[in-house]
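Listing S7. Sequence submitted for prediction.
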Amino acid sequence: MLDKRLSAFRRMSLRDSVTLAVAAAGIIAVGTSSVVALADDSVPSRIAMVAEQQPAAPAVTPAAEPIDAQAVAGLPALPELPPLPELPPVPGLTPPPPPAPVYEDNLDGWIHHALDVMAAQGIPGSYNGIYRNIMRESGGNPQAINLWDSNAAAGIPSKGLLQVIDPTFNAYHVEGTAWDIWDPVANITAACNYAAHRYGSMDNVNSAY
C-alpha cells in the first residue's frame, strides 16, 4: 500500500507540486494571523478593564497663604506719578468754546450775569456797589415802578431794579442784553453804563442819580 502512494507521489508533475506547496503555505499564514489577531484584541480590552477598576485620583488644590496685614502696612507707599504733559494744539483744529455759565434766576444770579456782560463791554462796577444801589432803589424787585416823582409826573416813570427811565435805558442799553427795561440784567447793565459815563462807576453812586 505504501509503495503505491509513493509511486503516485512520484508520478505528480512539477506543476502539481508547486500548487500543493503554495496551498500549504496559505493555510499556515491564515492560522498565524488568526493567532496574532486574537492576541492583539485581548490586550487592549484587558488594559481598559484595569483602567476602569482604578479610582480617579482626587484633585489637589493648594491652600492659599494668609495675607500678613502688618507686612502689607509696612510696605512703602507708591510714588506719585508726574502729571501728563499737555498735548500741543493740532494745527487747523479750533478747540470747542467753553460752556456758557449758568446763572440762577434771582438777584444774585442777575448781578453776576450783569457783571459778566459789563466786563465784556468794559463797563466798571462791583457786586457790592450794584447790590447796594438796587436795595435802595427797588428793594430787589425787578417790577418796581415809581409813580409819584417828577419823572412819573413827566410821563416817564422810573422802572426796574435800578429805577431807570425809558430814555436813559434806550440811550445806554448794553449790547448782548434784552431790549426790555423790565429785564433784570438789561436794567442793571444800562443803569451801570449810564452811571459809568456820569459818575465814573455805579460804585460811586450813593443816592438818587
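Caption to Listing S7: primary sequence and predicted C-alpha cells for the chain studied. The chain has a mean pLDDT of 79. Helices lie at 2-10, 14-53, 69-73, 107-121, 127-137, 150-153, 166-172, 184-199.
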